[in-house]
Amino acid sequence: MSAGLLDLPGVTEESWQEEAHRRGWGDGLPLVAPTPARVAAALAALDGIDLELGPLPPSGLVPTRESFAANAVMAGCRPVDLPVVLAAVRALQAPEYNLHGVLATTHPCAPMVVVNGPVRGTLGINSGSNCLGQGTRANAVIGRAVQLVTTHVGGARPGVMDRATQGSPAKYSFCFGENEEDSPFPPFSVRRGFAPGESVVTVAATEGPHNVNDHGGTTAEDLLLTIAGTMAQPGSNNVYVKGPHFLVLGPEHAATFARDGWTADAVRDALWERARIPVAEVSEANQRQFEDWGVVPDNDAYPVSTGPEMLHVLVAGGAGKHSAWIPSFGATAAVSRPVPGA
Amino acid sequence: MELERRGVVAPLVVTETFLPLVQAQARARRVEPRLVVVPHPVGGLNEAELAGRIEGAAAELLRMADEARGGA
Amino acid sequence: MSTDWDVVVVGAGIAGLTAARVAAEHGLRVVAYDRLTPGGQLVNLTALHEHPGGTGPELVAALTAAAEGAGVRLAYAEVTRVHPGSPVRLETSGGEVTAGAVVVATGLGPGRLGLPGEEALARRGVSTCAGCDGPLFRGRAVAVVGDDEWTAEEALELAGWASAVTVLVPGQPRWSPDRAARLAAAERVEVVPDATVTALRGEGVLSGVVVRTADGERALAVAGLFPFVGRRGPEGLVEGLAADAQGRLVPSGGVLVAGDARAGAEQSLTAAEADGRAAGEAALGALAASSGSLRIVDPTHGVLPEVDAAPVGAGSTATWTDVALFTNSKPNATELLRGLGERLQAHWGLPELGFAAKENASVAAEKDTIDWLSQRFKMVLVAVGD
User: Fold this and answer.
1) Contacting partners of chain A (3+ CB pairs under 8 A)
2) What's the pLDDT at C142?
3) H-helix or E-strand containing A73?
4) Rounded to an integer, what distance in angstroms lies between the CA atom of residue A55 and that of residue A93?
5) For residue A59, which residues of chain B lie inside 8 Å, CB to CB?
6) How far apart are CA B26 and CA C107, in angstroms?
7) What does the alpha-carbon distance between residue A112 and residue C39 come to, in Å, rounded to a whole number?
8) For the UGSC-like domain, which residue ranges apply (chain B) (predicted)?
9) How many domains, chain B?
């Protein structure tokens, strides 16, 4: 038998779920059995594409083509989903993403996967209504596959190696597309230096999204006040670990900004100035903790992260007056990689 | 662990909870770390509790240190 | 079929540990039972020949680590009876367990001459472990009884302690030419073929034996006697399984037997290892045949990248007075390290300790910091996990 195949005696397709669970595999949801035939079919989508993956912490093992594909199969991926999963796993292996720190931390961060470009349409990745929620196969399985690869090959099992205090539902799966079609701004990937029309995946280790409800606001100024207020909270890692954070504007909020003449960068710059946490809302013990990390207040208030460039503004969702702020682990970076073969 | 690879005696102080993680990293790097294991947690302890952790770990550390020095 | 284990291995010597590891590497749920500690006879062997495993205990440690690394559970209980079937039922001193397959790898029992007084003199001169008891006979005469590789190996071992080692071979030696040469070269060892021990002498402790050869009977004064004859296999352990004249089991009916416990086994480490490997593979085959199996691609599989495991020359001139602390900057980590550092400072009478900190607990250490620490210090106490 070649390395990497397992014969599970007495196990059938019917009893496979129990077996997988007993082995500590998966995320608690049912898994597709990665039979050699399914894995081979999935791998066909990577013909001519090298994985270009390195060792995954903490095990230090490099996924093989077969084990990479097996995890995608288990997550429920179709063969066509694999290149996007691969781009995401490549991205989170960039040193600045800090995968080791991400896997071992007590912080509830998840690998957020944002997809830009035509591959969204090809795979049916939802960037519109309920794109951060349930119900879209591509979003669900791609985000899940990224987690399973790192969990299984890297060995960062929840509760053993993954030391999250509480974790987050985002850790099941956190993948969505940017709603380029309804965005008044250039695509996020283009603003990050990729060509228009190129399919690109961006990852970062983030919390789940925090809702920003603003139904009353009619101007950019109104919206900025609400968004800045949502961001100015003393309990996020971005206050003292700093690092990237994300503003995912609903298309209607984005349209309001655009109508009032705001670019994405202008929104970002204004929020850097306005999202401030008054020192009075931070305990003295935490002020000392912040100071240990080299963070001192600026005019009786703390900023969120280190500068306007740390806030990434993008557009996703459908009709309605909601946006989302997504704080991060802090010790991570937004990393983008093109989708291979796309 | 990188320090040990460079010939420095580097005992790692680790809490029980993080022990599996450190051991997995060690396996990945193919090193056998010198470990001083203390009860979890360390963060959030008051002075008396911290003194207890130090007391509990000191004997093992000194033994390990003497052994390393004696064997050098 | 739902069983406690896919495979139960009875006996954790070289054959049992190898069978268990091989089965576990195929993803099976495997437990290996041993009455005492893993290793079987290996634990008693100080030096190994024909096997690149170092000393016996070193090989045991490596085999045990490999088995556990593959997921084998080691259980310390005695298996008293095995009932073949589907499932296999095993009575143990820790209760009954069920399995899809069983590998019997108990090895052989201790040597016995079957003479009056032998039981009473056990551990009072009569021993079956040269590595354990050899030092008790420093400067005294001992006899070894047997004709096989173990006998020769134990005689050579005893020659390191005893003033004289007489090897009493019931017929002609069966050991290899290599061992014969080593025995011939050992000054204190004399091999006596066609010799039978007919009586033991001694009140409370052994003082000698009576030996009959073609030349007649004579008394041999020895303080120690090491019988390696009359060793028996685990006959009766498995319900319905036949045994040969030495009590070694004849595999049949789906019961796998590996190592010295198997009828017809060649008694050597390499043979036991090969036997164990074959039994592990056979257990997999038996399980698949009896209940079918689902073949999958292992989602946890990966390969370790080639790394330069050789120590990197530090070029450091640091001495034992150069000690530093390296904190991950998490709350209290620095305080804990300083507390421990003070103890070491007092213990060794050290001057000031060096100090470095990771800027951020969540990222890897800066290369510059590691460079500085490794060049400047002999010992660095590191806070890593909390």
Assistant:
1) B, C
2) 95
3) helix A65-75
4) 8
5) 24, 27-28
6) 35
7) 49
8) 2-64
9) 1
